[in-house]
Structure formats: C-alpha cells, structure tokens
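Record 1 of the preview.
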Amino acid sequence: MAINKVQPPRNLNPRGVGDISSPNALTPSPAAESLGNARIGYDNLLISTTTSAANAMLMPNTWERYRPSSGSKTIRFQLATQSSIDFIGIAATNAGTHDGGTPINIGYASSVGGSVISLGSIEPDENNSAVMRLFSAVNAAEVIITFNSAPVGSGLELGVIYAGKSLEMPHGIYGGHAPIVLNGKTKYQSTRSDSGNFLGRTITSQGIETSYKWRHLDPDWYREYFQPFAKSARKLPFFINWRPDVYQESAFGHTTGDMSPMNMTGGSRLIEVSFNMLGHQDVIS
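->
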C-alpha cells in the first residue's frame, strides 16, 4: 500500500516518487515512498475527546490508562482542525492478552460527529507491544476507536493514542540493526544462598531498547524534516516502525539523550545521525 508523506523541499530532486517497488534505492533525499523505510510518528494531532475518561489516552505517559466498562464502545478523539493523517498509534495497552486478545477497530470522520470510515483493526501481540498502523493519507477531523462488533469485557486498559502525519526516512535500515521488540531491557534482583545456590529471581523493571542510525542524509532534508523530530524527542515519546513492509514491529518510547548529527567526510555535506531508544512494554505476569 502506498503511503503518502510530506513532500521534499522544491530544490531537491527525488527519484521514483510514488514507486514502492524499490525500497533499497539509496539516495540522499526522500526518494520512493517505500514501506521499506522506517516511519516515525511523533507529532500527535489529537487534542480532545468526547469521552472524558479517555482523556488519559491523550497524555504521552504510559501509566495513566483508560479502563472502559464492558460492552460496546465508541470513543471519538478530535483534531484541532481537519488535517491529513497517515498513522494511528496505540501503546500501553493490555489488548493483546485481554480476553484472549481484543481487536481495536479504528476509523476516522471527516467532520466532528460525522460518519465513521473504517481503517480496519489494530491487534496488539501477546507481549502487548505498541502498534503503529500506517495507511494512505486521509483528511480527518476525528479519529474513532470502537468495540461494537466485538464488545469489550471489563479489565481492558488503553494508555496512549497518537494520530498524525508520519516522518518517512529517506532510505531503509539494513544490516546490523537490532529490532527493538526482540531486545529486552530488564533489571533483575537475584537471590543466592551463602553456599552459592540459586534461590530465585525477581524482575524489578522491564522494557525494550535499541539504537537507530542513518547515513547519507541530505542536509537540507535533515534540517527541514528530521530536526523538528529531534527537537520534539527531547521532551516527548514517539512511535516508530523500522521496517513496515515486512514486520509489524512497532515501538513507543523515548530517546536516552540528544541527537547529535554529524557531517560525513568529503565535500558532500551529507549527514549521519543516530539515537538510542527505550521502549515501553507491559510486564506480563
């Protein structure tokens, strides 16, 4: 599925715009719209909801939760004004394990209170990982989640929802990357007897962690498109999917420090940048 994105600066000359068949093309500017390139969702356009208890989902922290009562539900979230969006992200939820797995139906309306246009469903995995759903851009005034076809049972928790226009990186991530959902960041407290016998272990904190790195970034593209993300990430968490054409392995989390771009060698002015990310994942009891 082609994914719309912000257009590159007019002084750049990208190749193959609209072609998603060549994800390995390496160019310094935003080249083909490719599901092989990482997507970052950081600029949340949702500002309010008509369901007061669901205001917790508009907070970018992962400990406040919306806990709906059982039954059919429709929760509508409003944007400040009708805007183009191409992703919806949901994190800090137990939907992957609640009642054996609870699909979250998502959609949008082009006007506040308008009819719901379906975008399918989100199904978190058994680790209750974050989900970032990408789709062709639509003009939305509201984002809606529903539990009408599969009424929700009591005990469901929903922590964070984002919707907006994702940042598409100009080229893919290749060898050497550690997928974040496979890399736990766990702290343990182990107990041993005086004679050295293992007596047990307690997990005191749990999450996921990895690093991301891109090279050969066009300097004008970096300043116009990536730098706003770098500034936002100083304070706010974000969604990321490193390879949406192959794996639905999304994460929601925050950086561990400032991003420090560097000019690459030679006279090209191309930029490389990397950052470390700690992601949220609920502890499975």
